Amino acid sequence: MRRLSISFMVAAATVLIVALNCGFKGEAPSYQQARDNRVERAIVKSAVWATDEEIRRLAEIIEKKYGSQIELISRKYYTRPEDIKAIAIVESLTDENAESSAGAVGLMGVKRTTGREMGFDDVERPLNNLKAGTKYYKMLLNKFKDRELALAAYNLGPGKVGIGLNNGFDPETIDYIWKIRRVRRLVI
Length: 188
Hints:
This protein is mostly helical and about 190 residues long. It has 2 domains: about 1-50; about 55-185, Orthogonal Bundle (Lysozyme), CATH 1.10.530.10. Helices cover about 70% and strands about 0% of the residues. It has a two-stranded antiparallel sheet. It starts with a helix and ends with a helix.
């Protein structure tokens, strides 16, 4: 069943790529082809990452445990709750004790230094993690004025995205963006 689901997702990603490329007349320049290949790889990578059923299960977990708190925190920081839930699912698979090799912890994968910068010393506590992560995401939204760029900065860091923008950075090439989009679509 899982192979069938993955095959379906890869096929859907391929159809999406073809649909996105239908607007081109004639032969695409070589730089465009390179970009399209990176986008295609990002889409496929995000499709293989988790099935829709797995994402829905994680969405139910986050909703049951933290749905009302996420709603309140999102209102406080003027963010969309589905973005916050999606970030928590992609960053930690809803594991409150998650810790990345880069030192990001908790539901929203907040680094301790970032948590302190956002005014929260104990980001290991789930609610503080959600608050710090949401406040940080809102800061990135204000800085980049674009939801996709803010998400890219949440994943890569604002410095890398800022430098990348000067060099033709395209957030579509990041599988993190495609994961977030898929999760947002399936979040309760």
